[in-house]
Amino acid sequence: MNMTLKIIAFVLILIGAVINYGAGLIAIIMNLAEKTDAKEAEELSGEELERYKQTKAIARVKIIGLLIMLPGVFLVFYSFRNM
Question: How far apart are CA 68 and CA 28, in angstroms?
Fold first, then answer.
């Protein structure tokens, strides 16, 4: 059981890290900047608005990667606490 938890933990950490480090590429491939709502940035010009949308899309992907990685980190703490 303990070994299974360790494997699941490291897989979750690995998947979350890959998503986090590849956030820029994921945002470009999935065209997330075009799907991002930027109502709060009405005063920005065309190029600045596109850069803002791209940054916002990358930040959202990074948050998702963190949310996937976090349970893995908790599982590592739990499975290695009795060593």
Answer: 20
Q: How many domains does the chain have?
A: 1
Domain with 44 in it: 2-79
Distance CA 2, CA 34 (A): 44
Q: Taking Cα atoms as reference points, which of 20, 29, 30, 27 lies closest to residue 54?
A: 27
45-81 pLDDT, tens per residue? Answer: 888 888 888 999 999 999 999 999 999 999 999 988 8
How far apart are alpha carbons 55 and 61 in whole angstroms?
A: 10
Are the beta carbons of 50 and 29 closer than 8 angstroms? no
